[in-house]
Design brief:
Chains A, B: In the C-terminal section; belongs to the class-I pyridoxal-phosphate-dependent aminotransferase family. The structure is a homodimer of 471-residue chains. Chain A is 40% helix and 13% strand. Chain A is α/β, with parallel strands linked by helices and 471 residues long. In chain A, α1 packs across α3, α10 runs parallel beside α11 and α14 packs parallel to α16. The radius of gyration of chain A is 22 Å and the shape is globular.
């Protein structure tokens, strides 16, 4: 990320040094962008990009109508949540009462939903999407009332393929199959690649939707030790793959749900190499990949996939319009089989919403929108971390995600976040207790907080209330 | 149907007698509606309903700008296709090359698609749906970009529940779960109720989509003997259920795909009784139920289901807008399990199109639209039957569906419709060969013709060409 061939990165690195060395202290106001331009001779664009970059490193924060200040995260030594060490066996899923509860809350009004992982309405470009909808009705044959072709809307597939350059891919429209959402893409992959009684590998903690899907398909899940910053541990992965009992692996290489971890490039490369070596397909969920806080789009495992062993799934449900049901999979060498599974279980995606998203991707609007949503999520994330550090008991550990929607918070081991969930709901606050992210008896002192809600005073108070409840 | 407490039915019965007894002969013009009113004192409405009823019995046909004529079907003794007698074992599915071919045609241009079972665009109320779309964008929170609640759009569920009165049901919105299309509803039911290696029962011939779904889920299919007029044979069903090897049954009680058969009410009642007795769930596909040619909506098996053993699936894909992906299931006592399967594999249906259809159902527009589409399908059906009888070799047997989209045609046993398929494609005509509707070596001299295309001279010529090719 710190490729100093760029002026703005050189400048950002310099400011970082000043902060780390104490030249700039917590709360100090940075010179305005104009002032820096006048002093240094850099362009406005270079300086704003540099400030944006430093902000994305959580070193400074912008205050509306005031300017940039050295953030208090910069000085604190934040404790990262511990790596997981689940028992290395595969467990079949028994309980989901807690999940039913958390999902049941979706309809509850007047509850601060720190539990749910999707963008708040304020973040969505609704007016532009509505325009797109009217245009799609005009453009599509029969206004989108007919079936699409089985593989999916051609415009959308072309744009997703074009978009793959952002993560170093070079897909064509033939490499994409659309689905009504990312979870349906993962479901189709699992249905195609496994049969009941098979075992799959996941991270731990892992998105509970994957656990539920596995249960529904009669699969055993082997959760592997996972580092909260760098993702699944490679030694454990290698060992598990070498047992030859595993039929597929499901991973989020970028801003994983719930831990927020991002696999370094070397890890991604090594994971792909291992999957190829053992000839076991990798189902990659890259749904958060576009929501990075850094200066450029991270790669994913598909970037390094030359043999077609990676099935990369994604959607716009986290970035654009969950209700449109627009997802896809880039199925590598399993295209024919996935296409049949789609035909058998889905036939066709919703024609009109897929056209709208294809069009939105085409005209650069998606890029503009992402720039905005990334900046907001980054701000929110910093504010959440600050408030958690201020109001939660000493010893609280917090992840420092470089993108996505989620903070992973680890409390004192005596605290049970399932109890906290019930307590917090009495104060109209919903959290996602850690134990729903594992089949094993783990993470009972952890919780996932979504920072997809817009940052307000009420939200700050909700987090402060959580802190008091924990104390 | 011939409930003579209605004036129009009394009058229709009288005309039927005149035709059957030879008072009216093939080609005779009937008096105009005005003339009949003047003669009989009946109202315009009574006489037109009577004529519509007689037409639905295939006894008369209307010619545009001319009037009603005694149809030549009325006089011919049409041979119904033979009942099926598959070997009573369960077979796992091996080949689908032919299906891939027929589906591959979907994109082909300039081909007369007698193979495909959905309404042609001319039959869809596209302008009205577009208006609904604009209204839905205004009405829905966030213009439909957000997730719905898991069970589905409340307005839509209310309207589907209200609509159940047409088939004698009394559902509430709590009895409905929406899905993105009917096949996804059936898929969710099968995933919930079966596991790989289980056996399900179907009619024979059976919609190939059900066979593909079964294959994808690792299920064995036991095809039962089926009468082309009255549907699955009850003795065979009873025998199969009593073996206790069966985990679910999938049936179309109305205008079955492909045979066109409709189970009489007594059969529907007996089927539900049997399923209850053996405690085996019935997945009913009632997608054609609203497309009847008679005077009233037929019941379905769900009508007679008091214990919740029937999961009734349907959609608007055959009647309103395939591309909208609006389907549903009324899951009876399996609601909790089906809801979980939906949550795991789909999460949420496309928000906006489900709202549009809910609204369309609410304002009586659906009823008006159905009246129109039913009349057109009925006309088409009669014209198809006439043309087949005129141009196909003697001995050809044709079903006489009372609704739906499909004619089932049985040719001389020496003819292979798979060969005919290839031959016809050279003349830009696509048919659905009979053998794709069974896992066994059956129906190779049969084919399914869809009468969803608008009736034109070109279409007549296509059917005549088919006749020549067969000769």
């Amino acid at each position: 990320m710190k490729n100093s061939s760029y002026l703005y990165l050189q400048f950002a690195d310099r400011i970082e040094k000043q902060i780390k060395s104490g030249v700039l202290n917590v709360g100090d106001k940075l010179p305005s962008i104009r002032e820096v331009c006048a002093e240094t001779g850099y362009s406005m664009s270079t300086v704003s990009k540099a400030y944006y970059e430093i902000e994305s490193r959580s070193l400074i924060e912008s205050r509306p109508q005031s300017g940039y200040y050295v953030s208090n995260i910069s000085a604190r030594t934040i404790s990262e949540p511990s790596a997981s060490s689940p028992i290395l066996s595969s467990a079949n899923i028994e309980r989901e009462d807690l999940i039913d509860l958390v999902y049941g809350d979706m309809r509850a009004k007047d509850v601060t939903m720190l539990s749910l992982g999707f963008p708040s309405n304020e973040l969505l470009p609704i007016a532009k999407l509505n325009k797109g909808m009217i245009q799609a009705m005009r453009q599509l044959p029969n206004s989108g009332t007919s079936y699409e072709e089985i593989q999916g809307n051609t415009n959308l597939r072309k744009e997703i393929a074009r978009w793959s350059f952002t993560w170093g891919g070079a897909l064509t429209e033939e490499d994409i199959i659309t689905t009504p959402g990312c979870i349906t893409a993962i479901s189709h992959c699992l249905m195609t690649l496994t049969k009941p009684g098979d075992t799959i590998i996941t991270e731990s903690p892992v998105y509970f939707g994957v656990l539920q899907l596995a249960k529904s398909l009669g699969l055993y899940v082997m959760e592997l030790p996972t580092n909260m910053t760098t993702g699944i541990e490679l030694d454990a992965l290698k060992k598990a793959l070498s047992t030859k009992k595993v039929k597929a692996c499901v991973l989020m290489s970028n801003f994983s749900n719930p831990s927020g971890s991002m696999m370094p490039n070397e890890h991604k490369i090594e994971v792909v190499r291992l999957m190829e070596f053992y000839n076991i397909p990798l189902i990659e969920d890259d749904i958060h990949g576009d929501l990075y806080f850094g200066s450029s789009r991270p790669t994913n495992c598909k970037t390094y996939d030359e043999s077609g062993i990676v099935l990369c799934c994604s959607s716009v449900s986290k970035s654009l319009a969950p209700g449109y049901r627009v997802g896809w999979v880039s199925p590598g060498k399993f295209k024919k089989e996935i296409l049949r599974t789609k035909l058998y279980h889905t036939i066709s995606s919703p024609t009109i919403t897929h056209e709208v998203v294809g069009d939105f991707l085409k005209n650069g609007r998606y890029e503009n929108h992402l720039r905005k949503i990334r900046q907001i999520l980054n701000h929110n994330c910093n504010n959440y971390i600050n408030t958690v550090l201020e109001s939660f008991p000493k010893g609280t550990k917090v992840s420092q995600p470089q993108g996505g929607f989620f903070l992973w918070v680890e409390l004192d081991s005596k605290i049970d976040t399932a109890d906290l969930y019930h307590l917090a709901m009495k104060h109209q606050i919903s959290i996602a207790p850690g134990r729903i992210f594992s089949l094993q008896d783990q993470f009972s002192n952890c919780m996932r907080l979504s920072f997809g809600l817009p940052w307000t005073n009420e939200l700050r108070q909700s987090i402060q209330t959580l802190g008091k409840l924990i104390s």
